[in-house]
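Hi again,

Forgot to attach this to my earlier email, sorry! This is the prediction with magnesium ion bound. I've pasted everything inline since the attachment limit keeps bouncing my files.
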Amino acid sequence: MLTILVINSKGGSGKTTLTTNLASYYASKKYRTAIMDYDPQGSSLHWLRTRSGAFDIIHGANGAPAKGAVTLHSKSWIPTDTEVLIIDAPAGTTGLLLKDLVRKANYILIPVAPSPIDIHATADFIKDLYLIGGALTAKVKIAVVANRVRNRNSAVYASLEKFLASLRLPFLTSISDSEVYLQAVEQGVGVFEMDEMASNTERREIAPILKWLEGSFPNRYGVRAIDNLINLESSKQYAAYRVVRKI
Ligand SMILES: Nc1ncnc2c1ncn2[C@@H]1O[C@H](COP(=O)(O)OP(=O)(O)O)[C@@H](O)[C@H]1O
Ligand SMILES: [Mg+2]
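Structure tokens for the complex follow:
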């Protein structure tokens, strides 16, 4: 089973948005997919409840501790034949829960919004990820994604890029602030399940994440390579990713 942890201590950074879009993509490619929602707000599980039975099934598990309880070990269950598990972490995760989640993960995705407060909080969080979460010894792969980007020419976007470069972590893609993500939430789908023309930009934005994860997936069910699915070679973001990763 491949486990992808979507985490940032900052609320509203895009954890649930990434979780639901990745889960729906893999489910639509016929991977047995599950979401474990650790956030007491339960946004991913809410999205799952709005999902029509016409779309591929995603198993939902609630990992959030009951009100007033202390987390020691998570006690939520997913089907034993799950192939892809996406964990939606709550804001402010630290301590034992952070350790527990990092230990479970093969990949960690950190969404960050281009705002000074978010950049500052993410810098602190990444320190915690290594010092408290033990990410270095866990040998988990970590990457960062910019989310809710409105203007790539803005000063704050430049400072986000500078910050990401200083981290020496792969910066996979910039996801725009787009109505399409909101429509997807409303409909209980991901952008890869929407009309292709209407969600073309958003698909391209998510694609570098899929590409980063692609090496870990067996090419069963005749799933087309991501490069064929979307013309990534022409995508500026992927070109930047290639430079950072030297591929
Ligand atoms: N790229 C985006 N474009 C438009 N709205 C977004 C985008 N990313 C997130 N949102 C919206 O912002 C809010 C917070 O995002 P969410 O994914 O729930 O963050 P988190 O799970 O980190 O708290 C939600 O209402 C979500 O629909
Ligand atoms: Mg959330």
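The chain has one domain: 2-245. The longest helix spans residues 116-131.

That should be everything now.

G.
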